[in-house]
TrEMBL record:
InterPro entries: Rab-GAP-TBC_dom (IPR000195), Rab-GAP_TBC_sf (IPR035969). Keywords: GTPase activation. The gene is LOC106477182. This is TBC domain-containing protein kinase-like protein. PANTHER family: TBC DOMAIN-CONTAINING PROTEIN KINASE-LIKE PROTEIN, TBC1 DOMAIN FAMILY MEMBER GTPASE-ACTIVATING PROTEIN. It comes from Limulus polyphemus (Atlantic horseshoe crab). Residues 152-284 form the Rab-GAP TBC domain. PROSITE patterns: TBC_RABGAP.
Length: 284
């Protein structure tokens, strides 16, 4: 079975494209139960804000129940896929497919709008397998990653592809761990004000965990770039990198650190008015 040899995150990504809904599966198993809003309110709230008379919802407790997700629909959708798609050749620099019906359909899909391509399971299967192999060969295959990224990037590997485009290399986790992200700095107050105010549009970024990750990454950048200062808007610049690498702070920090000197060089100086004027006229 070629599909089951793929990484688990790829299978889950493709499963969602075929209509898989993890919350629906959990509700079907009785692990998610709808509770009337009135039943979630405390019975007593004192002036200091302390609440009484409400038990903690069991949804916040650890539940080690294992749920087997059905793959029948996914297997049915991919049963006629040519097995050669699972093993693309990248050594000769070509990612062209053999001339059969499947490859012709994929080539037609490649010319469609991005929104349609990201919903097409056969096309996404081809792209995630191709990019996974190219990323495993990074940095040797960086030119080919750049070439393929001009067409489109599968959402599953977008964070890693952006890192490759920004030429992120080395032991980024050790470098990030060595940065002091706890000692108070002069910019802490401004960071704590900007983060909750600017990123309520996304559930992950607006969560308490997202706020803590934001603060650590921004503090790490301020500490490691003493020649620069924190300007309002740096958190918004960090947002896409954190969103794409939410479980990998080190990679999000590395991408932010590589992006700024490449595209916003000298922008975060204490007096950046000459840079802003130059950027303004360049954009016009």
């Amino acid at each position: 079975n070629h599909l089951l040899r793929r990484p688990l995150e790829e299978i889950y990504y493709l499963w969602q494209l075929t209509g898989g809904d993890i919350e629906a599966e959990l509700r079907r198993q009785g692990l998610i139960k709808v509770k009337p809003a009135i039943c979630t309110q405390p019975k007593v709230v004192i002036e200091e804000g302390e609440q009484f008379g409400q038990k903690k919802d069991s949804a916040f407790f650890l539940n080690d129940t294992v749920i087997i997700l059905p793959l029948d629909q996914l297997k049915q959708r991919l049963k006629d896929i040519d097995p050669v798609i699972y093993y693309p050749l990248i050594e000769n620099g070509s990612t062209s497919l053999p001339s059969n019906v499947s490859s012709i359909d994929l080539q037609e899909t490649a010319s469609l709008p991005l929104l349609i391509k990201e919903k097409d399971i056969e096309y996404q299967l081809h792209r995630v397998i191709l990019f996974e192999r190219l990323l495993n060969a990074y940095p040797y295959k960086r030119p080919q990653i750049v070439r393929e990224a001009r067409a489109d990037i599968p959402p599953l590997y977008r964070g890693h592809v952006w890192a490759a485009l920004l030429e992120i290399e080395g032991d980024i986790h050790s470098q990030y761990d060595q940065i002091d992200k706890e000692t108070p700095t002069l910019t802490d107050r401004q960071i704590e004000v900007d983060i909750p105010r600017c990123h309520q549009y996304d559930e992950l970024l607006s969560s308490p965990t997202g706020h803590n990750k934001f603060k650590r990454i921004l503090k790490a950048w301020v500490v490691t770039h003493p020649q620069y200062v924190y300007w309002q808007g740096l958190d918004s610049l960090c947002a896409p990198f954190l969103r794409l690498n939410f479980s990998n702070e080190a990679l999000a920090y590395a991408c932010l650190s590589a992006f700024i000197p490449k595209y916003l060089n000298m922008f975060f100086l204490k007096d950046n008015s000459p840079v802003i004027q130059g950027t303004y006229f360049f954009i016009l």
